[in-house]
Amino acid sequence: MEDCLFCKIAAGEVPSNKLYEDDRLLAFYDIDPQAPVHFLVIPKQHIASAAALTEADAELLGHVFATIASLCAKLGCEGGYRVVTNVGVDGGQSVPHLHFHVLAKRSLAWPPG
Ligand code: 5GP
Ligand code: ZN
Predict the structure, then answer these.
(1) DSSP string covering 16-39, please?
(2) Where along the sequence does the record place the motif called Histidine triad motif (predicted)?
(3) Distance from the first to the final alpha carbon of the chain
(4) Strand order in the sheet with 37-43
(5) Which residues form the domain of 86?
(6) Which of 33, 36, 78, 96 is the most buried (most CB within 10 A)?
């Protein structure tokens, strides 16, 4: 999609610090980390947010979460981690391309602010 930052990152048109990539998704480190480990997982196809997901995306989502589990194991996140996807203005979404934040290696407060 034109003028979508994360589509450009997925296409390699905007550089990113990549952690993992395959035909369906890309994991890269957040430019403004909120924890010692903070990376984003995005589908390569443009999906605006979790609000746009359908039953047809079930396999993609399974792949996203299995990849997150594998990456967190590789990064040594034995203490646990948090997966967050922000949706819309009230949800705090600033980039309108579905992405999952993965935060780890610090104690994370709940509920969030
Ligand atoms: P949101 O606020 O939409 O949930 O999360 C967007 C995230 O993307 C933010 O945590 C922000 O730091 C990150 N971000 C924004 N622009 C860039 C960029 O150009 N490169 C990388 N690696 N992260 C970005
Ligand atoms: Zn996009």
Answers:
(1) --EEEE-SSEEEEE-SS-SSSEEE
(2) 97-101
(3) 32
(4) 18-21, 25-29, 37-43, 100-104, 81-84
(5) 5-104
(6) 96
Contact call for residues 66 and 1 (beta carbons, < 8 A)? no
Atom nearest to 94 CA in ligand 1 = 3
Q: Is the C-beta atom of 94 inside 6 A of ligand 1? A: yes
- Residue 50, ligand 1, Cβ within 6 A: no
Separation between Cα atoms, residue 97 and residue 94, nearest integer Å: 9
Q: What is the CATH number of the domain that holds 27?
A: 3.30.428.10
Instruction: State the sign of the Cα–Cα–Cα–Cα dihedral 20, 71, 7, 60.
Output: positive
Cα(24)–Cα(38) distance, integer angstroms: 20
Q: pLDDT below 70 — which residues of the chain?
A: none
* Number of independent structural domains in the chain: 1
